[in-house]
Amino acid sequence: MIWLECDYTCGAHPAVLKHLVETNGENTPGYGLDPHCENAAQMIRELCQAPDAAVHFLVGGTQANLTVISAALRPHQGVVSADTGHIFAHESGAIEATGHKVLTVPTPDGKLTATQIDALCQAHADDPTAEHTVQPGMVYLSNPTELGTIYTLAELEAIREVTRRRDLLLFLDGARLGCALAVEDSGVTLPALARLCDVFYIGGTKMGALFGEALVFPDPALARDFRYLIKQKGGMFAKGRLLGVQFEALLSDGLYFQIGRHAVELAMELRRVLEEKGYPMPVPSPTNQQFPILPNEVLKRLEGVCTWSHMSCPDPEHTQVRFCTSWATTREEIEKVAALL
Fold first, then answer.
1. Tell me: the pLDDT tens digits for 258-268?
2. Per the confidence metrics, is the pTM higher than 0.90?
3. Is 243 helix (H, G, I), strand (E, B) or coil?
4. Helix and strand element counts for the chain (H, E)
5. Are the C-beta atoms of 205 and 243 separated by less than 8 Å?
6. What pLDDT digit, counting tens, does each position of 199-243 carry?
7. How far is residue 192's CA from residue 186's CA, in Å, rounded to a whole number?
8. Domains, the chain, ranges and CATH?
9. What share of the chain is helix, strand, coil (3-state, %, to 5)?
């Protein structure tokens, strides 16, 4: 079976497993207070050109999102998100369970715009009963988005200008960040994210790790007492060294960026075939997620050969699906799927 359902169905990249085995016999302090976590954090500071950044390692994306958002917002504030955003559509109300509302904005391609954010804030400011409603306090972006689209540097700079002017924090979910960074003409780099975001994370779970996300606070003052909040939200991993070890491996010799390029290159090969066959792609994605609308008869041919994620049924004869490549996807697998499309 060829697994294209998502990018974390396989285990971990061999280099990650190798480093875990090499360090397995070590004894270190727990809870992320070990030399491996500190070394990985320093590697991230250097890659981001943010020497003072606070770096914290958490196990998963939902855990990272709810811990950051609940820590950053005051009780009466909410977080602005695209209506397709992971925190709204795929986290079982985790943010709302912390007492904070997700303020959604409809988007055709999964991307918030500076104009939309500004308009939402202005509408709140103009509302004579504003104090009876939830105040926007943060903007949540994901790059890539849930639809595989990415933000350009110019778009992020425009959003940053609005968030600064409107006194909002800017938080970027980087669960698949390696795939976004692989799209060269976006202009987005780790130093750019450190310059523009109040907090963001470098995803590991979907980028070759067994598990793990690296949260980056370019201004360490914003991370004051954050370890207390990690503990309070159940995120303080006793064997925290395992997170640091994995990120050491991912960030050595450019492996993290190689993984992103590999996944994107294979997704682009699949996209080329889909487009040549004339299958509609409502939101063209330059990253490792592709969302074609396929005839059901084609999906029947693919049954037993590959997996995919179901998205919607636009009509009785067609289904929109998601194909998702990863570090473990091979060119031979993509060629086998392409031959059946």
1. 999 999 999 99
2. yes
3. helix
4. 14, 11
5. no
6. 999 999 999 999 999 999 999 999 999 999 999 999 999 999 999
7. 11
8. 14-254 (3.40.640.10), 255-338 (3.90.1150.10)
9. 45, 15, 40
